[in-house]
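Q: Here's a chain of 373 amino acids. Please give me its 3D structure as tokens.
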Amino acid sequence: MGAQAIDHKGGVWSIAVPIPDNPLGHTLVHLLETDRGPVLIDTGWDDPDSWDTLMAGVTACGFAVTDLHGVLITHHHPDHHGLSAKVRAASGAWIAMHAADTAVVRRTRAAVPGQWLDHLIAKLVAAGAPDEHLTRLRDARAKGRSGRQPPGRQAALPDRDIAPGELLDLPGRRLRAVWTPGHTPGHVCLHLEEEHPGAGADTVADAGAGGGPRQDGHGQGRGFGRLFSGDHLLPGITPHIGLYEDPDADEATATDPLGDYLDSLARVARLAPAEVLPAHQHAFTDAGGRVRELIAHHEERLSGLRALLREPLTPWELAVRMEWNRPWEHIPYGSRNIAVSEAEAHLRRLVKLGQVEQVERTADGGPARYQAV
């Protein structure tokens, strides 16, 4: 199988690992050479073709799988973490992940059959989902099907934590962890604090435009280093921001994923990397410009939701009225659950900002309704 391995120079490569039956097409797994051997950043989906492509890509980069020294996971989603266990088994490499996402992996591994369906049904009931939507889930639960679980083998438990701000133990390289929660609670970007090998070239000259000169102690001007951004910062896609999936969380400890994401975007903009190497689509420059686009997108969406919430709505009713990439009636059944989670994340942000409040809840614990203040 032919491998798409791109040499980004300076000991940095990317391998396009396919995601079966997914419009994203592939995950860009990055290989970073170190003095102790190559390290992978993400691994791709757990699928035989994906594994073959990853291995062919490692070979195309000039290495054997047994040369791999470690695996750095940007976040726990299966198109990033799926092949980690196979990589570790084949190479002896360690796996590292932020503790918040490791906790998600641990919960998933410990879940009993049906637990995820129970949690999903309860969340959708609280959001005001209609019976015709809930019927399929309740039927699946009654028949003993476990419902949506991460595909493939059980996700690997990491061997190491990635601590925010940590300069990772990679001999010969300066790679710093940047905690960027939002897409997941433990998402991390990885900043390669080294002169870009194309510094001064046209492809890097406009990096960081509008962000002003950096004062970072490295003696670098605008646009320093490269950022492995996972799903946090993508050139043409807005990553899904939904509620963090924690069945044990209660309302007293309600999280604010969209607020986390917006804060994380600002943190990445301040880094002003010369180039961004994301996990999907393609490498790009002008991280600051892309951050501004994403912040503007969410501000516009929040403004639109405030307008919709002139009348009291449940999270489900709000999701039905929101603008998506297709009309609600054309959104697949499973994707509607994701859409409702995203609507709830935006509601959380508006409530935290004091712009929306909960106005109704039935005595029997039925769905809450929210309205603009």
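Q: Can you summarize the key feature?
A: Confidence is low (pLDDT under 50) at residues 201-221.
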